[in-house]
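Q: I'm writing up a methods section and want to include an example of the input and output format. Could you take the sequence below and give the corresponding predicted structure tokens, formatted cleanly so I can copy it straight into the document?
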Amino acid sequence: MRILSIRRGRLVATLTDHREPVLGITFTPDGEHILSCSKDKTIRRATCAGQDCRIVATFRKVPNALAISPNGQLLAVGLADHSVRIMQTANWAEVHNLPFHSDVVTAVAFSPKGNLVASGSGDCTVRIIDAETGDQRHCLSTHTKEIFSVAFSPDGALIGTGSRDKTARLFDTKTGHEMYCIADAHRDHIKAVCFTHTGCAAGG
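A: Here is the clean output for your methods example:
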């Protein structure tokens, strides 16, 4: 894993602590640390200078994706055992172990307010979860193949998804209803979706 300085345009550090490929990375909201998950079944935290890299969580199955809440207090992890775990970053204690999916969890995201988690899976569904209670609010089931990416719009009103079924879709967060399906823009699966600060969506 490599950390780059955008301002200086140079390599800051190369981290080689994981023993298997890195599957997901995210910065903490304060910009001081970076979190990574790997096929070696661990999550590590390091400073953005590449120092003090340590294991903060170990799992029996591979963690495929991770996301941190906007306030930095919670971490969501999507695992190969079909579960979504929500952990406290203060002590890395597990708050929720959520068994809603029936296949590998491939993507997770927090809403802008941090009150919701969206998770995507090989079971072709996206689940909207209450981050505090762990309750499932909606199951979004219009995709026909594996979900690769989930993202909330800046206002939290929409969830964007990308899938192996070659479609990108937008869902209403509050109701769970599908708002749009972009089915003819790509000839292959859609690995990533994102929103601009003004709410424009992109997938590829």
